[in-house]
Design brief:
This protein is α+β, with helices and mostly antiparallel strands. The protein is 23% helix and 27% strand. Strands 3, 4, 5, 6, 7, 8, 9, 14, 17, 20, 21 and 22 form a 12-stranded antiparallel sheet that branches. Strands 10, 11, 12, 13, 15, 16, 18, 19, 23 and 24 form a 10-stranded antiparallel sheet that branches. The radius of gyration is 27 Å and the shape is globular.
């Protein structure tokens, strides 16, 4: 829910209309579960508040006088100077943009000083050069800026490039500041408006008291008609040459953390030397590998965009470009199509987290916590799931006998010897449970429950494994849809190439929704209370979706996962059903109780090393965006096999 402030804050002698809390555009992501009317609660009227925050007027002056005076002041060629500055002219803006405090409360400060707007919460600061249209970003812990030459950038569907620093900033609406109170605490939102011939590009910043980070986004809008883009960067840092360094994290061994979009194909985290780095997904840490101080940059909204973080190197050991943007698409995101276009009167970027920490590991956990403010993790307080899974043991050879014998073994040998969590043990089918008849599945689940355990099962909600044979009828659709109907296609109607041997299913198709309901209700009727959902990234791929209101893979994935929640309903609300994601995107994260931290692991030393890589850089998701990280399996084998592996490794 979004709230509105009833007052307005006077900036540079001008009355600026109140903006929507939690987002600077109508379509901006709402960061407030319930944003209260701050001014109304404080008992300050709009006229009183305007005069109080201007810091320039005596108590006897009223708001109307101040507005009139501001209008007269605006008639000076401040707008012209701002426009000339945006076009690259060297101008002295201090004569028009006089030094003054725009807002001050506790650790929050916004001021106009020496031709700059300065915004800070005492821990992070942004200095905006009014004439140049670029920013510098600081941490209180460092004297030098972390980022310089920062602006916003987007490319419209017709190829028009909008660069905020090259656009016109009018004296009448250049900057607006509002108070915020939401899940992050008390803060201010800052909106800087940049005007173009075809569209406007607004930069939005959110500073909160006592937080070592701030949030930002960019909104592209048009006065008439719609805008459309599949690329928008609220943070784009570049001087435009090959020698000016724009990114500075102190340290002798600065690393750039490559964070995978998902955990498929045995993809790995990689802490690359900054000068050899290129891109990360959803979040990165740029840190000194010795002292561990570092900058964290990543997205905290995951309703529309896939977020990328890019760096580009130039000469003289310089990072000449740094950007955080919505619109990522690559083999790492399992896409063979560009990111989908987002259209509307206003289009908002993902909200970006920028923070600096003396230990980047604290920063990663803080980043996870910030995501959880906006999209809280799926609640679970029934203990940590532990038990047996069929895949590593028997794979496609699973049977009724194997499943029930394993349940008996756990009960007789492990269950009462600390192999449980609050007395709860799960016995889970993986793939190929359909080797069993429906009767066997019901009896298997009942057998497990009689052993004091909880039965689990497996599905791939958004993946079809029939290869090119898509003419078969989709189960649960009353013969209304074939697989050909519901698999994901491009704009020409061509089925997307398979990934991992599986063809993507359109998460927005009504046939998909009928199939999900059919499967999940059967699982519940058979007595299962845990489902492992695998190959989830297939549901987040870019494509041409049945629901034409949905145009991006992330939107489609959210649509499919919301349907799953709708089907499970009270079972999830009452914590009677557990959802574990296996191969899946890191975000959005609010739909499952756990997510695998890696791809499959088995009982080999190289798999152990691979798991440690995932744990070393992905630990922070546990307890922040998911209740639990899933470490896949403990692979148990015989002593003779272990000795043979040892002999082999010793050569």
């Amino acid at each position: 829910m979004t709230g509105r402030a009833k007052g307005c804050i006077w900036i540079a002698g001008l009355a600026l209309a109140a903006a929507v809390l939690g987002g600077c555009g109508a379509d901006g992501g709402d960061i407030s579960a319930a944003a209260p009317d701050i001014l109304q609660e404080s008992g300050v009227g709009s006229g009183e508040y305007a005069a109080e925050t201007s810091g320039q007027q005596e108590d006897s002056e009223n708001a109307d006088d101040l507005a009139e005076e501001g209008e007269k002041g605006a008639s000076v060629d401040a707008g012209k100077l701002a426009e000339e500055g945006a076009m690259g002219a060297s101008v002295d803006v201090s004569a028009v943009w006089e030094n003054k405090v725009l807002y001050e409360k506790d650790s929050l400060l916004a001021e106009q000083k020496d031709g700059r707007w300065v915004f800070t919460n005492g821990l992070m600061s942004l200095e905006y050069d009014i004439a140049e249209g670029t920013s510098r970003i600081f941490s209180e812990e460092e004297e030098e800026p972390l980022l310089t030459e920062v602006y916003a950038r987007t490319v419209l569907a017709d190829g028009t490039e909008l660069i905020s620093k090259d656009m016109r900033r009018s004296a009448e609406d250049a900057v607006a500041i509002e108070e915020l109170a939401d899940g992050f605490g008390n803060g201010i939102s800052v909106r800087i408006s940049n005007h173009g011939e075809k569209a406007d590009l607004t930069q939005c910043y959110y500073f909160y008291e006592e937080l070592p980070y701030f949030l930002c986004e960019a909104v592209v809008s048009a006065e008439t008609g719609e805008v459309s883009t599949n690329y928008i960067a609220p943070v784009f840092s570049c001087k435009g040459d090959y020698k000016t360094n724009v990114l500075s994290v102190p340290g002798d061994d600065v690393r750039f953390l490559f964070t995978p979009y998902d955990n498929d194909a045995f993809v790995r985290y990689s802490a690359d030397p900054l000068l050899t780095a290129s891109e990360s997904y959803e979040v990165t840490a740029i840190y000194d590998n010795n002292a561990r101080n570092g900058l964290i940059a990543g997205s905290v909204t995951h309703d529309t965009w896939k977020t990328g973080i890019k760096v580009r190197q130039g000469g003289m050991n310089a990072t000449v470009e740094f950007s955080v943007y919505g619109g990522a698409s690559s083999a790492y995101t399992r896409d063979n199509l560009p990111h989908g276009y987002v259209s509307g009167r206003e289009v908002a970027s993902p909200k970006i987290f920028l923070g600096y920490f003396s230990d980047y590991r604290d920063g990663m956990e803080t980043f996870g916590g910030a995501n959880a403010v906006i999209a809280p993790p799926l609640a679970w307080d029934q203990g940590i799931p532990i038990g047996w899974n069929s895949w590593s043991a028997v794979a496609d050879k699973v049977s009724y006998a194997v499943y029930t014998d394993s349940s008996d073994f756990v009960k007789e040998n492990l269950q009462d010897k600390s192999f449980s969590q609050d007395g709860r043990v799960y016995i889970n089918f993986d793939s190929f449970w359909d080797n069993l008849t429906e009767k066997e599945l019901k009896e298997a689940a009942q057998h497990v429950r009689e052993n004091g355990q909880i039965p689990g099962i497996y599905m791939t909600p958004f993946t079809f494994w029939g290869g090119g044979y898509t003419t078969g009828t989709v189960p649960g659709t009353d013969n209304r849809y074939s697989w050909q109907d519901i698999v994901l296609k491009d704009e020409k109607g061509t089925i997307l190439p398979a990934v991992d041997g599986g063809v993507s299913i359109d998460p927005t198709h009504p046939g998909t929704h009928m199939y999900l309901e059919y499967q999940l209700k059967r699982f519940q009727e058979w007595g299962f209370a845990y489902v492992k959902m695998d190959f989830m990234s297939h549901g987040a791929r870019e494509g041409a979706f049945y629901d034409k209101e949905i145009t991006t893979g992330t939107q489609a994935y959210n649509c499919g996962m919301r349907k799953i929640h709708e089907i499970l309903g009270e079972k999830l609300e009452n914590q009677e059903f557990f959802i574990s994601l296996s191969i899946a995107p890191m975000f959005p994260s609010q739909y499952a109780h756990s997510r695998r931290i890696s791809c499959d692991v088995f009982g080999t030393i190289d798999n152990t090393e691979y798991m440690l890589n995932s744990l070393t850089y992905g630990w922070w998701m546990n307890g922040t965006i998911y209740p639990f990280n899933d470490p896949d399996t403990w692979f148990c084998t015989t002593a003779s096999t272990i000795r043979m592996q040892s002999f082999t490794m010793k050569g």
